[in-house]
Amino acid sequence: MDTNKSVKTETYRATTFADFNPEHTAPGVTPERLAHLKEHGFVIINDFVGNPWIPELREAGRRVTEACAPENKYDVIDCSKGYVHRTGQDQPWAIRGIIHPAFGESCFAEFHGSTEFLDFVASWCHGLQPEDLTFSGMLLWANPRTHENKLGWHRDVTWWGTGKSYFAQREVRGDGPEAYSEEVERKIWQEIQERNAKNIEKRNGVSMFLALVDDECHELIPGSHDRWRTPYEHDVLLPKAMKDQGVPHTPSWNGTAPLPGQVAIRLKAGEALIRNGATIHTGHTVPERERNTLSIGWSKWGGEFTGEPSVTDVRHAWQLDPAVREALPHEWMKTAWDRWNATQKLGDTLEDRYVGFDIRHIKSGMVLGWRGELEQKAAAGEEI
Alpha carbon of 204 to those of 28, 68, 110, 127, 198: distances in Å? Predict the structure, then answer.
């Protein structure tokens, strides 16, 4: 892992960076890249540097980010057809729905199904082919234009309670303090470790953060995917509500200090980060430095679904729109969408379908998004 020091300025900037390692230049999956991913929890690849898709995607990303600015509401694009993560000032920091035809940027879906991207997926995933895929989402990371934006430190795995996946509109963080006991946490952590080992061996899918411009916004603690957290990290990760309810911990973090060992992943345009979601990580953007990065990938289909569809996570509700399927550029992509769609159903509340920005505008009288009976009643001020 290569690290460099950088002098702090008044504008936030990380002090330690991880850059692309020239030893990882060989394309696709290599023993060197897998070894780095296994040891550090991440690897930077350069397979798309100089690719002609990058400038096309870059300009599309800029257009989408500008169109989702709060003052535009729905005048440039109907962003209620997607799911836009917004700051307290309603500025976008992550944009889902960029493949919906309402966004008007077909290049995102075209790249998702392109030979260049599929060749990488096949290399990384033991020859995985389009006919064996199920639909995976895509989002665009952006930086708010007027305010610094920092996410809380977290892992992309549930390390407490039952270990069930996060569900955005009805998050359940266990039944109380007992769900955060060290005994429960160690049991879940053992399961996470077993999945880590299985995933790096089987590689039934791959996702990446693909930089369309130079990006240094993703920060993580190398190796944290593969070890028990420290008491300091426990204080960082433990929700305040659980602290208030008496979960034992060692108060040690002031809420702003750098974490021991943290680095910022520094990507050049066309480089991409592949990482283990169990790493302790965050995102930190400032208005002075553009962020324009795709989160993109594919997963292997697990076979015919025989269960009952579940209400989809609100962040993905837009994907159920048949218009998304029809806009996909290849028949195999439509088949992949069908496989995902069979497992999901649309929820029946506004909170099951929209981000708060959209809900506020619907309740103000605008019929948006799915434009069905639910939305019409809410816009008319009827009780729902």
Answer: 15, 34, 22, 10, 10
Spatial distance between the Cα atoms of 70 and 89, rounded to a whole number of angstroms: 8
Read off the tokens for 126. 């033991």
Kindly give the residue spans of alpha helices, DSSP state H, lying in 73-112.
107-112
Q: What is the pTM of this model?
A: 0.95
Query: Do 295 and 208 form a contact (C-beta atoms < 8 A)?
Result: yes
How wide is the angle at C-alpha 58 spanned by C-alphas 56 and 59, nearest 5°?
70
Q: Residue 186 and residue 337: Cα distance in Å, rounded? A: 36
Tokens 């879940």 correspond to: 188
Question: Which tokens is 317 given?
Answer: 């509700």
Cβ proximity of 285 and 291 under 8 Å = yes
| The amino acid at 78 | D
CA torsion angle 26 31 36 37 (round to 10) = 100
Q: Which helix (H) or strand (E) holds 237?
A: helix 231-237
Distance in angstroms (rounded) separating the CA atoms of residues 44 and 37? 9
Give the distance from CA 327 to its chain's centroid. 22
Mean pLDDT by groups of 10 residues along the chain of 384 residues:
51 95 97 98 98 98 98 98 97 98 98 98 98 95 96 96 86 78 96 96 97 98 97 97 95 95 98 98 97 98 96 97 98 98 97 98 98 98 90
